[in-house]
Amino acid sequence: MILEQLLVGSMGVCCYLIGCEETKKGAIVDPGGDERRILAEVEKLGLQIEYIIATHGHPDHVCGNRIIMEATGGIIVMHEADADYFEKPETQNYFSMLGLEPSPPAQKRVKDGDLIEVGNVKLRVIHTPGHTPGGICLYSAPNLFTGDTLFVGGVGRTDFPGGSYDGLMESLKNKVLTLPEETIIWPGHGYGGSQSTIGEEKRSNPFLR
């Protein structure tokens, strides 16, 4: 697997470039700004972008979707619950306070257990609601892209509309922490660090004790 982590945008989002070494097909996860830099890295890696995947619909993670889609022809992918939730006018009005462009409508809606195939790389969708109704993690052993579900030493906030602390804790307990301890965590922001493992978070993350 080709894997590159970029810290992008005004809110310090961890964007990921994922590619298949054999076919050079690729995906971009959470292009939250700095689109020119993202596209330059895509060109440098020689990737043909098929998918633009949102771990969730908050504007800081999807504000680059339109530009990236227009530049690459990639398909916007989002969990069906967030695709519906973030198309609501009241949701868009609330999050407009961030001053960031919302995503165009998702062209591919996914649900728990779906596989997103990027060449020979298979990303399994794990629905982890709590931060948002349709938050997801993407799993391709040993890598887990956690979005704002789990950070290094922290967890996603749940005080925005659509958030649920109990739901987030349930997602972490039943969906994330059941994965092998050697699983590498790639978070949606670099709070506390740019990567970790399931085992380390079980031992040291105060929210998971």
Helix content: 25-40%
Main CATH class: Alpha Beta
N-to-C order of helices and strands? EEEHEHHEHHEEEEEEEHEEH
Q: Give me the CATH architecture, please.
A: 4-Layer Sandwich
How many distinct beta strands?
14
Helix count equals 7
Distance between the termini: 32 Å
What general outline do the C-alpha atoms trace?
globular
Sheet with the most strands: spatial strand order: 1-2-3-4-5-6
Low-confidence sequence ranges: none
Radius of gyration: 16 Å
- The domain count comes to 1
Proportion of beta-strand residues: 25-35%
Walk me through the structure.
The protein has 7 helices and 14 strands. It has 209 residues and is of the alpha/beta class. It has one domain: Metallo-beta-lactamase, Chain A, CATH 3.60.15.10. The chain has a 6-stranded mixed beta sheet with strand order 1-2-3-4-5-6. Strands 7-8-9-10-13-14 form a 6-stranded mixed beta sheet. It has a two-stranded antiparallel ribbon with strand order 11-12. The radius of gyration is 16 Å and the shape is globular. The mean pLDDT is 97.
